Amino acid sequence: MSTEDSPRCPCRSGRPFAECCGPLLAGGLAPTAEALMRSRYTAYALGDEDHVLRTWHPDTAPSVLDLSDGVTFVGLQVVDTVAGGAVDDAGTVHFRAAYRTETGREVLEEISRFVRLDGAWLYVDGDILST
């Protein structure tokens, strides 16, 4: 399958999955904090627990993660990024993630903190603004 035939990425970047989050879910390194955040959203949307745990800072990561909770992620909006670029060692990404549950549609809004450790961006934690 060529990248032109690849489905659009769940992170809503507008790019094909094979050129966007696909390589990161396969083990590649994110070039920026925003790229990592988008790949983590995609991992949640696809139920890829390994990617979510692999990209979580070891000091704050849970020991186990269960993504079979009936949540279906349906949209992502990146509101703002501060630092987190290719030459930075830390950054934040403010986002809104829309999801559906058995009881309806909701939106998680968070400002997530990321650091680069040994060349890899990792999610540290976040401030939840609304759910």
Automatic annotation (TrEMBL):
It holds the Pfam family SEC-C. This is UPF0225 protein FH969_12260. The lineage of its organism: Bacteria, Bacillati, Actinomycetota, Actinomycetes, Micrococcales. It comes from Miniimonas arenae. Belongs to the UPF0225 family. PANTHER family: ADENYLATE CYCLASE-ASSOCIATED CAP C-TERMINAL DOMAIN-CONTAINING PROTEIN, UPF0225 PROTEIN SCO1677. SUPFAM superfamilies: NTF2-like. InterPro entries: NTF2-like_dom_sf, SEC_C_motif, YchJ-like, YchJ-like_M. Residues 32-126 form the YchJ-like middle NTF2-like domain.
